[in-house]
Amino acid sequence: MSARDLAQLRARLMSLRDQRNRMVHRSSEFERRAAAEVLAARATLDGARSELSSARHEVASLTPDLEAFERGQPPAGEEAGWRSAWGKTSARRAQMEELRAALEVRADEAERQLQHALAAQEAASADHARASARVEHEIAELTSEIGRLQAELPPVEGPDPHFRESLLGRLSSLESERSWISEEVAVREERLRRIGTEVAQIRPLLEMHTPDWGRSALESLVPDPPADRSLPAWKQGVLEVLRAASLPLHYREIAEVLTATGRGLNGRDPAETLLAALGRDRDFVRVGRGTYWLHSRPLPDGSPHAGGDRE
Fold it and tell me: pLDDT tens digits for 158-175?
């Protein structure tokens, strides 16, 4: 194959990489729109359910009064007022029954809209994943082919200005990609921080307003937050392992669990790679030699490190 053919392959590779970048950018924009649509659908459903609950409560509160009117007799000398009150109560319950029926239809429609938004989000994510996989596969094949052909060509006698321009263009594209990805990461981290703050405020309020007989069921009513898909697989795995643990764990123990569940880090020694990652992440704290715990949780009483300073 000639140098011209090799240049064409390089150009194709550059084009595919640009296409991949555009796909990632479009996917990020779509995720934001889809998340907004899902949130709006959830808000509509929550509003409809809240109004429906209020209507049902009022119907239930009016029913005993209406039954009392139907069973009772008007007090002497107050028949007109008694029958007027009966009529108003009956009319009010009929009105609330009609409102309840309308709200049930509205809540059902809101539920369908939410399920539709979730299904559209999942379908679009799957389509993007398949398209990305095809592009990544072609990029990998082209990279391998270009590397093989470059090895077969004779050594370059002088600099290639056209190839240098291509490299500079690729470098500029990568810098631009890194910039907007950093902005996207910052936006997501701020959103996670706000969510964590609100969750921390809601939990004590919920406990305060839970009756004594229901406190044992509080954990089931307020489950742990679901896995955050924006987190790297290794970090989500470490969070799950340490949340389930009763004592701090050595990083090699954690690495074994991650490897067994297919979320281990790459490298010559995955455990050492994990150690370096734990040291850079503020969500984890070293409490002993090679032993780590969650920064957001106090050390268990039975821990040999309890009462000591965190490192």
Answer: 666 776 777 777 777 777
CB atoms near residue 201 (< 10 Å): 10
**Residue 224's pLDDT is what?**
52
SS3 state of residue 176: helix
Other residues' Cβ atoms within 10 Å of the Cβ of residue 19? 15
Q: What is the pLDDT of residue 214?
A: 53
Please classify residue 153 by burial: count the beta carbons closer than 10 Å to its beta carbon, then call 0-12 exposed, 13-18 middle and 19+ buried. Answer: exposed
3 state SS of 249: strand
Quick one: pLDDT at residue 217? 52
Phi, psi at 288, each rounded to 5°: -170, -175
Q: Report the C-alpha gap between 162 and 186 in whole angstroms.
A: 37
Burial 123-152 (b: 16+ CB within 10 A, else e): eeeeebeeeeeeeeeebeebeeeeeebeee
CA 193 to chain centre: 13
- Per-residue confidence (pLDDT) for residue 136, from 0 to 100: 82
Q: What residue ranges define each of the domains in the chain, with the CATH number in brackets?
A: 3-153 (1.10.287), 231-294 (1.10.10)
Reported as half-sphere exposure (CB side, CA atoms, 13 A), residue 183 has a value of 8
CB 253 within 8 A of CB 244: no
| Residues of the chain below pLDDT 50 | 221-223
Query: What global pTM score does this model have?
Result: 0.41
> Which string of DSSP letters, residue by residue, matches 121-169?
HHHHHHHHHHHHHHHHHHHHHHHHHHHHHHHHSPPPSS--HHHHHHHHH
At 96-122, the pLDDT tens digits run 899 989 988 988 898 888 888 888 777
Residue for token digits 């590397």?
Answer: 147
